[in-house]
Amino acid sequence: MQKITREQLIQKASELLENGTVSAVLGWGIGEFDYDVTPTVFSTVEELKNGFVFNDFCGANFSKYLVKKTDKIEGKILVFLKPCDTYSFNQLLTEHRFDREKVYAVGIPCEGMADIAKVKAISGDGIAAIGSDGDKLVVTTLYADEPVVIAAKDVLAERCINCKSKKHVAYDELMGEEGEVIESNRFDEVARLEAMTADERFAFWQNELSRCIRCNACRDACPACTCEKCVFDNPNSGVENKSPANEFEEKLFHIIRAYHVAGRCTDCGECSRVCPQNIPLHLLNRKFIKDMNDFYGEYQAGAEVGGRAPLVDYTTEDLEPGEVFDRGDNNA
Amino acid sequence: MQRVGVFVCWCGSNIAGTVDVEAVSEALKSEPGVVFSTNYQYMCSQAGQDMIKQAVKEHNLTGIVVCSCSPRMHEATFRKTAAAAGLNPYMVEIANIREQCSWVHKDMLTGTEKAIILGKAAIAKVNLNAPLIPGESPVTKRALVIGGGIAGIQTALDIADAGFPVDIVEKKPTIGGKMAQLDKTFPTLDCAACILTPKMVDVAQNEKIRIFSYSEVTEVSGFVGNFEVTIKKNARYVKEDICTGCGACVEKCPMKRIPNEFNLGMDNRPAIYIPFAQAVPKVATIDPNACNMLKNGKCGVCSKVCAAGAIDYTQKDEYINEKYGAIVVATGFNPISMDKFDEFAYNQSKDVITSLEFERLTNAAGPSAGKLLRPSDGKHPHTIVFVQCVGSRCESCAEKGKEYCSKICCMYTAKHAMLTRDKYPDTEVYVFYIDVRTPGKNFDEFYRRAVEEYGVKYIKGMVGKVVPEGDKLKVQASDLIANKQLHIDADLVVLAAAIEPDKSARPLATMLTASMDTNDFFTEAHPKLRPVESPTAGVFLSGACQGPKDIPETVSQAGAAASKVIGLLAKDKLTGNPCVANSNELMCNGCSSCANVCPYGAITYEDKEFRMPDRTTKIRRVASVNPAVCQGCGACTVACPSGAMDLKGFANLQIMAEVDAICK
Q1: Which positions of chain A have pLDDT values less than 70?
Q2: What is the dihedral sign for C-alpha A80, A82, A86, A88?
Q3: Is the pTM of this model over 0.80?
Q4: In terms of CB atoms within 10 Å, which end of chain A has fewer, N or C?
Q5: Which of B589, B639, B653 comes nearest A226 by C-beta?
Q6: CATH assignment of B334-500, among 1.20.1250.20, 3.30.565.10, 3.90.70.10, 3.50.50.60
Q7: Which residue in A96, A228, A257 has the most chain B C-beta atoms within 10 A of its own C-beta, making it the best mutation to test that interface?
C-alpha cells in the first residue's frame, strides 16, 4: 500500500496545470487490466480525473519519456518520480538528453511496487480485478469463487525488496517525507552467480536467455537506452535487426546491451520489470556495477548530475587492465 | 567493389623460412575483390615497389595489400609507392606476416595458415577502405625542456644555438641537477663544477633561453607543433628580478637548522637559502615549511637586511601559459631509497653512506669542505668498504631494488676508490662487486689503474651484513673467487645505490601521453633507430629519464634530442594524420562520453539545428572533432554508446570485417 494516494497526486497535478506552472502531466494511466498501468500524458484536469491511476503496479520509470516528450510540449511538463526514478533522471541530465528547464519534477514516496508474476503465482491466472485493502491486495479472478487476499509485502518486486534508496536525488518539489539511501543486499544474487563455476554460470545464462524473444522491451524501457539511433536499429552496425536465431545471437544482444549501459545504468530494474519472459536481466547490469565498485571505488550512476563516471574517467589510482584480468575467473 | 592486389614478401628467409609464400599468394587469389596476387623476395626493394606500380597500372588496382613486416617498418614506404602509382596512399593495408607470424612460429604449416588468415583480414579491411586526405597544421617555433640538469642544459643550449627560443622548467631553485653535486668526473677526473658551471652561465646569458626555476609543468594539451603548457612557478617569496644573490639574508636568517638537500642532509641550511655558490639563477628562495615569518608572521629579518628590497612574503604561486612546438623530457634520476636495505645498516649508522653522499663528503663545497671525514665523529676513516650493485641487478629482490644495471656505479666507485687512495694512501679500500662493467672510451683503463696503480682491493662477492659495533662497522662478506667468508672492520661503508627515474616522471608521462616501461623510464620510439624520440609525436627524450646514463652519454643524447627538435621547429607546417575520429551528427546523442575519454581535448560540442522527418526542426547537442588535435587513438569510438563516433581508416566496420575474416 502506497503512502500517497491517487487523489493527492491528481490534486497536485491539477493545481500545477491550473496555475500554469506546467502544461502537461506525465503520469500513470488506466490500462487494459488493473495491473497493466500505462504511461500517459494528461493535458487537462478532466483527463486526469478520468484516466490517472496510482497503485502498487505503477512501477514505470518516467525519466526516459522526458527525452521525447519535452520536445513535443510547449511549456513545462510535470513528471512524478519515485526515488529510484530520480537517479535515471540525473543520469539523463548528465548525458544532456533533455532540457531541465522544461521539466517540473515532483518527488513522491514509494513503498515498493508489486510484481504481477508473484501475484499470479498465488492467485492463479485470469485476474479480473485487483483492489487494495490497507497493506493487502484483493485479487478477483475468473476461476476462484472468493477474492484472494495477498499481503503486499509478499509480492514485492525483486528490485523493491532490494531497494537501494528511498531518497530523491532530484526534484523541484517533494510530496511526503524524504527517505534515506538504504544498505541493500542487491549484490547477493550476483555473488551467488560469481561463486558458480564458469560452466554452471554459462548454463544458468543459457537457460535464462534462451527464453528471449527479442521483443526489445528491455531496451525500449531502459532509461539508459536513449540513443538517437540504437546500434540494433542501425544497418551499418552489423548487428541490426537480429533475431534470436541461435544461442549466440540471443546472448549477444543482452551482452552488448549490458556493455552499452555499463557505468550509466542506475540499477532501476526496468529491464527485468518489462521482460515478458521474466529474464533477470538486471543481474547482468548489477554484475557490472559490482565490478566497477570493486575496481574503481563505490559509484552510483545518477547520484548527482555530472558525476564521476568510472568508465569514462581516468585517475592514476585506476586499476591496471592486467589486474582486472587477474581478478577475473580466468582459470575456471 | 575494390580491385585488390596482393603482394606477399619473402623478406629473404625472414618470412619465407617459416611461411610458404607461394601458398599464401595462391590462397589469397580467390578472396573477394582480389584481382592479382604475387610474391617476391624483397617487396620493399626498388624492384618490389616497381612490381606494385606496374600491377596497379596493368590490373587497374584500387587497393593494395602487402603481406610483409610490421607496418611500423614499411607502411610509409608502401604508401609512397601507392601514391607514385596514382592511388590514394591510404588504400594500402599491411598484413604483418613477419613479427606476428614467421618470427613467432617455428612450424611451416601453422605459419602459413596464420599468414593466410592475416592476409584475408587485410583484404577484408581494404575492401572497406576509402581515400583519405591529411590536413596541415602550423608549428610553434619554441621548445620546452623539462628538467635543468646537464641533459636539459645541453639540449636547451643546442636548440638555442640553432636560433629557436627555449624554455627550461626546473623544479629546484637552481639548474645544474645531479652533476652540480658531483666532485670529480670519470674517466678524466676533471671537477664537475669546472665543466658544468660554464654551461650554466651560458644558459643564463643566452637570450634565446628562459629559465623557470622552482617551477613545474602542471598541464599539457595540444599536439606536435602545437602544445599548450601550463607552468606553475612556485612562490619563492623573493623577487627574482631584484635579488642580487648577495647572500646577506642567508647569513642573517635565524632558522639555521634545516637539513640541506644539496648536501643530502649531511649539514644544515637556513630557511632562506641559495643551494650553492654557482647557482643559476643566483637568487635566494624561502622554504615556506621552515620560515617563521611565513608560518606565524614573526621574524622578517631577511626583509630587513635585504638592501635590494627583494623579499616578498605575500608572493603567490604563478601560472604561466605558453605554446610550444616540441617538448623535451630531461627529468633525470635519483638514487633509490636505502630504507629497505636493513642488512647494510644504512639507517642505523651515520657512517654507512651512499655514493652520492660520498661525492658531497669529498667535494670542496661539501659539508666537510672536501676532507674525507666520518659523518659520525669527524675522524678520518682508515678502512673503507665500497659495496656495488646495492639494489641494482636485483632479480631476487625486485620488491626493494631494481632488476636493471644502473650502469654508472662501476665507474664512479672506481673513481671514489682511486681518489681516496690518492689523497689518503694510509686508507685501506675494498670494493665488493658482482661484475665490473667498464665499456666506454678509456673506462677499462681507468678501472685497471685503480687496481694496479692505486692498490684498490677489488673482491668479487657481495656484502651480506654490516653491523655497527663501537666505532667500527663489522662487514661480513664473501669472496667468491677465494671461496671464503671475510670479516672486515670498516670505518666507513659506501653503498652504490641503484638509480631510478625521478618521481615526477610518471605524472609527467601521463600529462604528455608518453609511454614508460615498468621501471618508469620513458620509452623511446624505437630502441635502436629512434632512441631520442618518444612514441608520442613532438615529445623527445634527453638523459637518464630514458635509462641509466653517464655524463658523456647524456650529453651526446641531449645533443641528439636537440637536433630532432631543431628538425621539427625548422618546418613551417606539419602534415597531419588523416586517420582521425569523425562524428556522425545524425546519430550523436550529445552525451559527452567521447569528450570525457578524449586524452587530447579534441572533442567539443555545438548545438545544431536538424530537420526532423515531420518537417519540424530540432536543436540538438552534437560532438565535433578537431582533426588537427585528434591523434586517432580511438578511445572515443569505444565510449560512444550509439556508434556515432568512428575512426577514419580504422572504422568499426573495417575492424569487424577483419575479425570476421579471421574467425571464418
Answers
A1: 1, 328-332
A2: negative
A3: no
A4: C
A5: B589
A6: 3.50.50.60
A7: A228
